[in-house]
UniProtKB/TrEMBL annotation:
The chain crosses the membrane at residues 46-67, 79-101, 107-129, 141-163, 175-198, 242-262, 274-297, 318-346, 395-416. The keyword Hydrolase does not apply. Residues 17-421 form the Major facilitator superfamily (MFS) profile domain. SUPFAM superfamilies: MFS general substrate transporter. It is a multi-pass membrane protein. Its main location: membrane. This is MFS transporter. It is found in: Membrane.
Length: 425
């Protein structure tokens, strides 16, 4: 009987909450990564080289880091429904500002504003999901939510190529049309969110009394297991577990974001047209989308977090190192598929591992701190990627920092696993 109530409750939660959250993150990542296609024409037209492009792209994550933890704490105070809506509307308006870019300086400023506006959305949603879904279901649910990332690159590749072809219409460049039309959906969805989401399970009427009781008891039991007092921002940032988890996620986050931005240039470097580049750019993300859901579901069934996180990090690192010795389009595409499939697979298990390691009482500041610290590394890698590529002319050399970071993350995951085992002994 209880198993049937559990299945029914999780199904209702998934149907009611996930679609709008997935759509929101899909739009967020399209707005974040569309610069990768825009720069194919925007860069030459405005004189933005690889180093300047990498610096501006890195500033996005600097702003993201500065505003992320305060944003998550504000969500705890004002409620997820209104705060997530505020974030969506803000980043939509910041995305529109990209239309006014005129050179490297205004490009960097616009990217900084977009990062500040989007800060808090991802950790806010992870926190929100932890307040609705019990631990046993969390890896699969987070994987379903984060499938927005590879899916955004599939949708964004075709959409960006189409919008770039509008070059000259009404006196606007193709890249201006791209930023203009891809920013509006965030504003529209932000207006709708307060009418779709609820802050807490006890506020909704679409759960029956027995479903609400089961969910409340399950979440309350997890909070009791966590123990302790609610963690302050400073206490959480000083927590060694947060820094360990941030190092683990840094390589994965940097790989996702660097390839979302730079992969179109890597592919086009083989002399392909815009549409050929767009079509091939979709391939690794299509493969990653399906495998990500499977891997998160598998991790939940086995109740495992360490192996499903460490293994993909090792595979990602190996594929990144191999980019140094490949010079053909076929081999490059094969490695891009492998590294992105592995890299996205670990995200569901990793965030389940993080929320379980920190406990419910430290989750608000802890999840935001992990994501913020990881994105600080992402900022540096994005900037370094541009500099290394401009000086060496090699994308393989520029990818080396990612290979090292993901390898370090794999090692830290295994150490964390040993620590968890020792703590249970």
């Amino acid at each position: 009987m209880m198993e049937e109530i559990e299945r029914r409750t999780i199904r209702k939660l998934s149907v009611r909450l996930l679609p709008v959250l997935i759509l929101g993150y899909l739009i967020a990542f399209i707005d974040r990564s569309n610069i990768g296609f825009a720069t194919l024409t925007m860069g030459p037209q405005l004189g933005i080289g690889s180093a300047a492009f990498g610096f501006g792209s890195g500033l996005f994550f600097v702003a993201y880091v500065l505003f992320e933890v305060p944003s998550n704490l504000a969500q705890e105070r004002f409620g997820a429904r209104l705060w997530i809506a505020r974030i969506m509307i803000s980043w939509g308006l910041a995305g529109l500002a990209m239309v006014a870019v005129r050179g490297p300086v205004s490009f960097s400023l616009a990217r900084f504003l977009l990062g500040a506006a989007e800060a808090g959305f991802f950790p806010g949603v992870i926190l929100y999901l932890s307040q609705w879904f019990p631990r046993a279901h969390r890896s699969r649910i987070v994987a379903l939510f984060m499938v927005s990332i590879p899916l955004s690159n599939v949708v964004g590749s075709a959409l960006s190529a189409m919008l770039l072809s509008l070059d000259g219409m009404l006196g606007l460049r193709g890249w201006q049309w791209l930023f203009l039309l891809e920013s509006v959906p965030a504003i529209v969805l932000g207006v709708l969110v307060p009418f779709v989401l609820a802050d807490r399970p006890e506020q909704v009427r679409w759960l029956s009394a027995d479903e609400r009781a089961w969910l409340g008891n399950a979440l309350l039991a997890e909070q009791a297991d966590a123990g302790g007092s609610h963690g302050s921002a400073w206490k959480v940032i000083a927590d060694r577990r947060v820094w360990a988890l941030a190092l683990i996620y840094c390589g994965s986050s940097a790989t996702s974001n660097v390839l979302s931005v730079w992969q179109p240039q890597i592919i086009q470097s083989f002399g392909l047209t815009l549409w050929q580049t767009a079509c091939l750019n979709m391939v690794p993300f299509v493969a990653a989308t399906g495998f990500m859901i499977f891997w998160g579901h598998r991790a939940d069934i086995r109740g495992s977090r360490i192996g499903p996180t460490a293994g993909p990090l090792m595979v990602t690192s190996a594929a990144l190192f191999l980019m140094l010795v490949t010079s053909s389009l076929v081999a490059t595409m094969g490695l891009l598929v492998v590294m992105l499939v592995a890299n996205y697979a670990l995200k569901g298990p990793f965030w389940a591992l993080s929320s379980e390691t920190l406990g419910a009482r430290d989750a608000a500041a802890g999840i935001a701190a992990i994501n913020a610290l990881a994105h600080l590394g992402t900022s540096g890698v994005n900037t370094l990627f541009g500099v290394l590529h401009e000086r060496s002319g090699s994308f393989g050399v520029a990818l080396l920092p990612l290979a090292i970071l993901t390898l370090a993350g794999c090692g830290m995951t295994l150490l964390l696993g040993q620590s968890r085992l020792a703590g249970r002994a």
